[in-house]
Records
---
Amino acid sequence: MGNRIDFCLLEEIFEKNMFEEKYFNKNDNVALKILMLLDDFSEGFLVLDTEDQIIFINKKAAEVLALDNDKIIGANLNNIALDQSIIDFVGKARAGSTKIVEEMGDGTLGSWLELEAIFNDEFLGIVIRDIKGRKEAQNEQKNSYESIRNLNTHMQLAREDERASLAREIHDQLGQRLTGFKMEIDYILRKSQNLETFVTEKLRNVINQIDRTIGTVRNISRNLRPGILDDFGLLAALEWQADEFTKTSGIPVFFQYLGEEKKTDNQKVTAIFRVYQESLTNIMRHAKCTHVNVMVNFGAEKIALEVADNGKGFNPEILKNQKSLGVFGMKERIESIGGKFEIESAEGKGTKVKLEMP
Ligand SMILES: Nc1ncnc2c1ncn2[C@@H]1O[C@H](COP(=O)(O)OP(=O)(O)OP(=O)(O)O)[C@@H](O)[C@H]1O
Ligand SMILES: [Mg+2]
């Protein structure tokens, strides 16, 4: 790879307007000598006058634009076979008052180019950089990011499936068996006469313990995957979770909704519900608030959800350089399936989590 063009040097040439003919005709012309040096550069450079006549082009620019650099000097830009995007760029550069940088590719030019314009009253210079390498690296990075995202979505689906079947199994198998024990003991208590008091007491005690265990089993199963989400839908599950939140935290939730819930893709409903749970967990852990407002809007095109607290808030900049993954995970989960996620917060101003799912 050759040297790169020093943009400051070019700017100086343009400022002093060293392209004038009087300079070019003199043998000791400094500008010309400098321009000669540009021939060996790895970046293309081309100079036009106000009439769009090419007055200088280096080897690299001629090569990239597929022009013959000996014959092209003096030709008018509009009379030579040149990609339309280059001509458009010159038009834009002339219309603007500052330097502009533009990436073009890939189709007709055959490669990714970055063009930068530099000009004074009389001349327009264009630096042409071949950015194929940079673009390829960016694409590679994008592809590997997409693979990771797909893998993550896949793993999340698998995990939700596992949780759902585990929840069902625990609820049905364990729950039913415990209820069975309870009924058996109940039967003994009802049918036997002359049981010693301590035996009756013990048996009642066992029934109480079984009841408590049934409660625990139900909780475990619900925490894995609330059946209410599958049986009664998103709205019911969101309201139920808000009640649970108030029961454990003592913080009241003002729950409002608009529109009517429609049948929605299970993956999307689950993602909304999980993000909602995570928002409430964050409120419980960090917000120190006195109330929470939840607003669900079932629109024709999308479901929107807002969870706002009036707590201490935080500067969202901290999310960029901290290790916790809660907010990052919520955003990723929603965006990877086509939704939008946003978190608004400021110190002392509470926090609002907003999401939209088409
Ligand atoms: N509702 C909120 N009120 C105040 N601060 C919040 C709220 N939600 C998030 N934060 C701040 O943002 C930070 C990042 O939240 P995030 O959920 O990503 O991580 P975390 O809750 O600390 O840990 P975890 O990875 O276990 O979720 C929190 O540490 C907290 O400082
Ligand atoms: Mg968190």
---
Amino acid sequence: MSEWLPLPTEDGSFTFFSKTFNEAFHSRFGAKQEAFLKFAQATDLADRAAQPSICLLDVCYGLGYNTAAALEVIWTVNPDCHVTLYALELDITVPQAAIAPPLIDIWSPPIQDILTAIAQQHHYITANLNATLLVGDARRTIQQLHPINFQADAIFFDPFSPRRCPQLWTVEFFTLVAQCLISTGKLATYSRSASVRAAMLEAGLKIGTIPLGVGHQLNDWSHGTVGSFQPPPHSLSQLEQEHLQTRAAIPYRDRTLSDSAETILQRQTQEQQQSQLESTSSWRRRWSLD
Ligand SMILES: C[S@@+](CC[C@H](N)C(=O)[O-])C[C@H]1O[C@@H](n2cnc3c(N)ncnc32)[C@H](O)[C@@H]1O
């Protein structure tokens, strides 16, 4: 039996829970909603779909929800838009388990066929899609995209959370990912952590926030972060800018792109202990976040 058991989220779509990372794959508020809001919408896919072609990079493909939401949005606007997709995923059993009902039923039949083909064949070519799933550690597989000069209009950046999977939130990994972003492109992630934002800045990206909608938690401040080479549409608030001046903004580093999570976390803790920056708890108190 598969180790992946469907777990319902609040919008009726399902997610998985990883025992290895001790974390769910999506927000409990809604897996499908998260894919549309924090990834497809945050990277302006509805507007970009007017182009004759779009290139997508899905970092941490998982159940394929970010890819699925993107394709639904693009082809609703322009069914003729040609999509080139590269997706990176460590564990092939995840996309394979996700193509069974009830998980896959949330997508339209053509998108179900695509998710199934990607999970089973890793390559899928039709008149308006050229999709490739690269299986392995994304720190390695991303390096296959540089020689072919792959440049994405939109990058979905969706690893497990920074404390659980720091190896994919380092300055060095963001630098490799940013090399795959076209000058007008956008990278979106659900994380609004200061260390993640600092790593994105050090990788050469400008950053903006994904603003909260209605009904958010009182002590929350953002739905995530957008990185681009152009000024972001939603600048960081004063609260967020001050967050970047605290010890929480010391980024993860992994110079050889091969360190363990433990080594990367320890390195950051040591740097934080030696830092003269304001403590993050004092910043939280100033902004009444506790
Ligand atoms: C939060 S989930 C992604 C959810 C996914 N975007 C979706 O819509 O279903 C994180 C994914 O990252 C994968 N992962 C973990 N470490 C990885 C690594 N080093 N390289 C590539 N993928 C990794 C996990 O197997 C998991 O599928």
